[in-house]
Every structure is written in structure tokens, then in C-alpha cells.
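To: structure subgroup
Subject: Chain for Friday's discussion

All,

I'm putting the inputs and outputs inline so they're searchable in the archive.
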Amino acid sequence: MNWEFYAVTRGAAAPFFSNMEKPILRQRTLWLLKAKTSYGWRGDGKQCLRAAFHFSSVPPPVKQALGTRDFIAVKLTPKECGEVIDLAKSLEVHFRRPNQFSAMHCERALLTLSLMVLKDQKLQASLPYHQRDEDRLERAMAWYSIHLARNPLVEEVAEAVHMSGANLRLICKKLRGVSPRRLMKQIQIERASEILANTDDKLVQVARECGFQSVEDFCRVFKREKGVSADVWRRYT
């Protein structure tokens, strides 16, 4: 499941969870909801304008700010509401008709929304040494997720976060026990699983969006990783 940003720019609404008696409805608010969080939405019965953004990952500082919580909510200024609306409109074009610049527009949207969520957080003078490798690995995989359709090589991913391919392999093995390519393959399959579960996209389109060279390659890898075919997965999720 994706990390989800929701901005209420007009009206009042709020997410609610199974352990919540009654949500507090808010106006002009940006929510970040953690991946795999189950929730619904409540409004005041009046017209509400809400912008939604879904990403397979978020920058490490956002994860750290969230901690064990299910969500973060921050108040938006009228100017920020306008920026979010413009952002949603600009991404809709790239969602419907992706081009060679779409990944950069998605990356810009993710960074813009992340900075809005973090605007009230206290700045940390410097990252503790033991967290630096984790931070670099997270940034590398976040960059790969954004550029998933191209399925970039390990060296390109490493260069994007200012490190060498050898260093990325070393850190990945130390922290995750696997190679970067293995982590990248997991990201591909998880993203494909999300698309299969939530859309009616044809398999050839899913394969293309997730960086596979062919639909045959996608189907083979998906069955190997999940134990069932992509068609069966879609049918029972």
C-alpha cells in the first residue's frame, strides 16, 4: 500500500480509524497517512474539496517525524492550499499521459508535500552517525521508486544520492542482508501488486509502469515472487 497525502482545501473533513470514537473535522489541513494504514473519511455533510497524492515511499525525515503514529496533520495557509491545488492539476496530466519528464514532476510533488508536512518540525543539527547509512539507503530506494518505470541501474541510483555503486551495495548488505538489486526488485513487485489490486490496467501497462522489459518478464518474476500469477493475484485481492 502507498503513503498517502490528503489536503482538504475547502470544507471540513478528517480521516477516522477503527480505534477512534469521533474524528475532529478540520479545514485547510494536509494529512500524511502511513502506508498500510486502514481508515475512512468523514465530512460535515457540506461540499468538500480534497486533493489526494499517492507515493510508494517518502523521504526518511518524513518517516522519522511520523514515528509510530498513523498520520501527521498540519494546518495549511490559503497560499499553501492554492499550491496544493496547482500541484494536483499539474500531476493529473502526467498521470493520464506520462512522458519523459513525468518522474521529475512526481519527485517535485513528493518533495513539496513532504516539506509542507515537516514545516513545524524542529531541525536537528546533524544526523547521528549510526543513522547516516540508513538515511542514504532510504534516499536511494525512494529515488528508485520515483523512477521505477525506467528501472535504473544500481550505479545510477547510487549516483543520484551521491555515493558509489560499491558503497550502496555494501550498505544494503549490511543493513538489509540483500543486494540493492534485490531491494529494487521487491519495490517493483510491491508496486505492481498495488496497481493490480486497485486498477483495471492491462498487464502490459502494469509491466511498463513497474520497469519490466516485457509483459512476459513481468509475469514470470511476479509468479516467482508471489507464488501465484498476476491474474490470480488481481482476482483475489
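Points worth raising on Friday:
The mean pLDDT is 87.
DSSP finds ten helices and six strands in the chain.

D.
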